[in-house]
Amino acid sequence: MTIQRMDNVAIVVDDLDGAIEFFTELGLALEGRALIEGDFADQTVGLDGIRSEIAMMRTPDGHGRLELTTYLAPEASAPTPAIPPPNTLGLHRVMFAVDDLDDTLARLRPLGGAPLREVADYENQYRLCYLRGPAGIIVALAEEVG
């Protein structure tokens, strides 16, 4: 048996409303919010006393989802360093295809979307940019040009 699909990627954030605003501005749609707690949550996540709020965001094509999670209990722990560099082991980044990279960056900057450096050209096929998103995660943007 093989997998059916990738259902979602979860990101733990400290400001759920701010993260929803950021990813809504990027073009994702809020499917819903829910409070998650109880035995099933403890068993699934592997922590006792889980109480979290999640927001499920859907990509415009309907095929991808991003689960934004904020922990009310137990309190979320910060990585060390607080904003890890791009070569840190583990989840590296989340990438989105965009139709206008410059416009997308202009809309995300006021929401804390600070580019790590500059927009780069990859072999005249893509314009690429990494930026910091909610909770310091790296959000990559790619505009196909070739």
Describe the structure.
The structure is a single chain. By secondary structure, this protein is an alpha+beta fold. The protein has 3 helices and 9 strands; from the N terminus they run βαβαβββαββββ. The strands form 2 sheets. Strands 5, 6, 7, 8 and 9 form a 5-stranded mixed beta sheet that branches. A 4-stranded mixed beta sheet has the order 1-4-3-2, with helices on both faces.
Provide a concise account of the structure shown.
This protein starts with 8 loop residues before the first strand and ends with a strand. With 146 residues, the protein is an alpha+beta fold.
Question: Main traits of this protein?
Answer:
alpha+beta; 146 residues; 4-stranded mixed sheet; 5-stranded mixed sheet; 9 strands; 18% helix
Global structural class: alpha+beta
Following the backbone from N to C, one meets helices and strands in this order, namely EHEHEEEHEEEE
Unreliable runs: none
Main pleated sheet: 5 strands, mixed
Number of helix segments? 3
Strand content: 35-45%
Q: Fraction of residues in helices?
A: 10-25%
The backbone outline, from C-alpha atoms, is: globular
N→C terminal distance: 37 Å
Instruction: Write down how many β-strands occur, each being a DSSP E stretch of 2 or more residues.
Output: 9
Mean pLDDT: 92
Radius of gyration from the alpha-carbon trace, in angstroms: 16 Å
Q: What is the strand and helix layout of this fold?
A:
Blueprint lengths: L8 E4 L3 H11 L2 E9 L1 H7 L5 E8 L6 E9 L20 E4 L3 H8 L5 E2 L4 E3 L3 E7 L5 E7 L2
Parallel strand pairs: 1-4, 5-9
Antiparallel strand pairs: 2-3, 3-4, 6-8, 7-8, 8-9
